[in-house]
Amino acid sequence: QVQLVESGGGLVQAGDPLRLSCAASGFIVSSSAMGWFRQGPGKEREFVAAISKSGGSSDYADSVKGRFTISRDSAKNTVSLQMNGLKAEDTADYYCAAKLFPIDTWSVFKTEGAYYYWGRGTQVTVSS
User: Fold this and answer.
1) Which end of the chain is more exposed for a tag (fewer CB within 10 A), N or C?
2) Which H or E element spans position 35?
3) Burial level of 34, CB count in 10 A (0-12/13-18/19+)?
């Protein structure tokens, strides 16, 4: 059974770093394209970051580029999102998503519809 469980969320101050982790079970992250999305209060869910099946390609939303870094640990079967320089506008529920066995090894996927499996989210609150 495929399962994604996010962790690492919490309450931080503006400028602080935070690292989110997504533990995967029932599949291997190195065989999948992975993504992070977020949904802020009163907002629609939006793309944050994605990494390709190969691990060699990644992409970010303009709003987080240069501050967030997506990575994966094949040994632990996890995907992480390192968030630096957090801002109040980063406050949101953060979701991990998986696209199993993508045909293209190097593509990153930035749309919700590309992902079939989702975690339940972890809340990040940034106080200013």
Assistant:
1) N
2) strand 32-39
3) buried
* 11-48 pLDDT per residue, tens: 999 999 999 999 999 999 999 999 999 999 999 999 99
Please identify which residue in the block is written with the tokens 């045909």: 103
- CB within 8 Å of 26: residues ≥ 6 apart: 1, 2, 3
For tokens 């094949």, name the residue. Answer: 74
**Do residues 99 and 32 lie in contact, with contact meaning Cβ atoms separated by under 8 Å?**
yes
DSSP track, 8-37: --EEEETT--EEEEEEEESS-GGGEEEEEE
